[in-house]
Design a protein that fits this description.
Elements (H helix, E strand, L loop, with lengths): L5 E10 L2 E11 L4 E6 L5 H9 L6 E6 L2 E2 L5 H7 L1 E4 L11 H5 L6 E2 L2 E2 L1 H14 L17 H14 L4 E5 L7 H16 L3 E5 L3 H7 L2 E6 L2 E7 L5 H10 L1 E2 L2 E2 L9
Parallel strand pairs: 3-10, 3-11, 6-9, 9-10
Antiparallel strand pairs: 1-2, 1-4, 4-5, 7-8, 11-12, 13-14
Helix pairs in contact: 4-5, 5-6
Length: about 260
């Protein structure tokens, strides 16, 4: 198997007396979509924030390209080529697509903004992702549909030569056609060799685009399997009970946060 781009080994995280992540192993492979699934309170958000450098680890290893790395904050993670697209997208409605994609990382030509280069790079990034639903990169974000906003947020992450992209519920609150556009884009990211993490409650989306599934149950990894190895019902059982037949945690009664 290809070596992971990003890997966590034996990661624990507590908030006071509340132990949220228990010896979590998690890997992201190049050219694959890894679905991170779990019920509310399973630890998904905490795990994502540990990967993003927002939360520090109590212990455990953080590896990138097979080598241990020291992560002290989000800037260190971004420097590795890891980008997170959160559910709220963090886009500014009053700015256009170019301004949003370069927000906080604007290019300059001397003392002024290099608008031509930024516009060209934004357009090339959208084109490379086969995005055809955006009429102009100078459209205000306020005028975009939900699916178009999600597309811009993902393109913004890809623009910075990312190698790993984490997508938090990218199809939440989208219609059927918009969901189709976003899922196609997720697949194209993996086909370009990126490691993609899809955090989702939607099992139909997971089984459509994911290559691997990592299921969390009360802060523990219940299973890490190829999508072909499990059924829809098995994944639901892993999410809700921590095991499905012989697959999953051996003693779910002791699994407490």
């Amino acid at each position: 198997m290809t070596e992971p781009l990003l890997e966590l080994r034996g990661v624990n995280k507590s908030f006071g007396v509340v132990h949220v992540l228990h010896d979590v192993d998690f890997a992201v492979y190049p050219g694959q979509v890894t679905a991170l699934v779990g019920d509310n309170g399973a630890g998904k958000s905490t795990l994502v924030k540990v990967i993003a450098g927002i939360y520090g680890r109590d212990n455990g290893d953080f590896l990138f390209d097979g080598a241990p790395v020291n992560v002290h904050g989000p800037r260190d993670v971004a420097g590795l080529g890891v980008e997170v697209v959160y559910q709220d997208l963090a886009l500014c409605d009053n700015l256009d697509i170019v301004q949003n994609m370069f927000l906080g990382r604007e290019l300059r030509h001397g003392p002024v903004l290099d608008e031509i280069t930024m516009e060209t790079q934004a357009r090339e990034t959208l084109t490379s992702l086969s995005v055809r639903t955006v009429k102009s990169v100078r459209q205000p974000v306020a005028s975009l549909s939900g699916g178009q906003r999600q597309t811009v947020a993902i393109a913004k992450a890809v623009l910075w030569n990312s190698r790993v992209v984490l997508l938090d519920e990218p199809t939440a609150a989208l219609g059927v056609a918009q969901t189709r556009q976003v899922l196609d884009l997720v697949r194209r990211l993996a086909d370009r060799g990126l490691g993609v993490v899809l955090i989702s409650h939607n099992m139909n989306d997971v089984f459509e685009v994911a290559d691997r599934i990592t299921a969390l149950y009360l802060g523990r990894v219940a299973a890490d399997v190829h999508v072909e190895e499990v059924s829809h019902n098995q994944v639901v059982e892993l999410i809700t009970a921590g095991r499905s037949g012989d697959l999953g945690l051996q003693n779910t009664a002791s699994a407490t946060i």
